[in-house]
Amino acid sequence: MTRSDGHATGDIMSHKDTHDIVGGLALTALGAFAAYYGQQYEFGSLNRMGPGYFPVALGMIVAVLGLFIAVPAFFRRGDPIQVEWKTLALVLGSIVLFALTLKTLGLVFSTVLAAIVSSLADRETRWKGRLIIAVGVAAVTYLVFSMGLGMILPVWPWSP
Question: In degrees, to the nearest 5, what angle opens at C-alpha 80 toward C-alphas 74 and 83?
Fold first, then answer.
């Protein structure tokens, strides 16, 4: 039997909630990694926390929250994941483009370029909106990383 959207009625009902399963397991893995990695630092105690206390505690909390998301999802039905390959390629490509152009174009221009490329994934946004977003992201990036954190990054192509 086929529904009005073209799927067989048995098809949709047999799928688990893969969105929450994948997301919950990813959170669990991230939390477990943070908790494991944080153990290389001194843990301390609740009264005198060491540098490893926060990453281990937060990692464990994130891992447990990930399980709270993933485990119930195994028992409920949901739509299968449909990967938007163009969107994935544009977003990952913008990250690679940023990394490749940071030294030559500087922080501001490479951020603008990466923001424009990644915004192409959204079909609703027009060029005026893309440019506004790109300039805003570049400004915030400059303020946070160069001014706020004092990171030594080439800001402009002519920067040393």
Answer: 125
Packing angle between helix 53-73 and helix 18-38, nearest 10 degrees? 160
CA distance 78 to 15: 6
pTM: 0.61
| Contact between residue 31 and residue 61 where contact means Cβ atoms under 8 Å apart | yes
| Angle between helix 127-141 and 85-119 (nearest 10) | 70
* Integer CA distances (angstroms), 30 to 4, 27, 58, 66, 73, in order: 40, 5, 10, 9, 18
In angstroms and rounded to an integer, the radius of gyration of the C-alpha atoms of the chain is 22
Beta-carbon contacts of residue 112 (< 8 Å; ≥ 6 apart): 134, 135, 137, 138
Q: What is the Cα–Cα distance from 47 to 51, expressed in whole angstroms? A: 13
pLDDT digits (tens, 9 = 90+) for 130-150: 999 999 999 999 999 999 988
pLDDT tens digit sequence for 98-113: 999 999 999 999 999 9
Q: Are 20 and 78 in contact (CB under 8 A)?
A: yes
Q: State the CB neighbour count (10 A cutoff) for residue 92.
A: 11
Residue written as token pair 């005198």: 48
